[in-house]
Design goal:
2 strands, alpha+beta, 15% strand, 46% helix, 3 helices, 82 residues
């Protein structure tokens, strides 16, 4: 068992880059990183960790901003009066 473990470690070291730098990411993660933020929901003291792609977070921010601008520019406002 020790021999198998030593062989696995030797193979892992041989496969790792010799420069010590992390391997370059390829695919969608290379251009679109995952961003994690700790957010505390209203009415709670316990923060919750939320992770999403940067593009998804940007899209949600744009949509929220557009909704807010639509409400503010509406002639009747967000609430209709009788």
């Amino acid at each position: 068992m020790i021999v198998a473990l030593a062989a696995a470690v030797a193979l892992a070291q041989a496969a790792a880059p010799a420069t010590g730098a992390p391997p370059a990411k390829s695919g969608p993660e290379a251009k679109d990183p995952v961003i994690c933020k700790s957010e505390t929901p209203i009415g709670s003291r316990l923060p919750q960790k939320t992770c999403m792609l940067k593009s998804e977070r940007d899209r949600l921010r744009r949509e929220s901003r557009k909704r807010l601008e639509d409400i503010q520019s509406a002639s009747e406002g967000p609430f209709k009066t009788p």
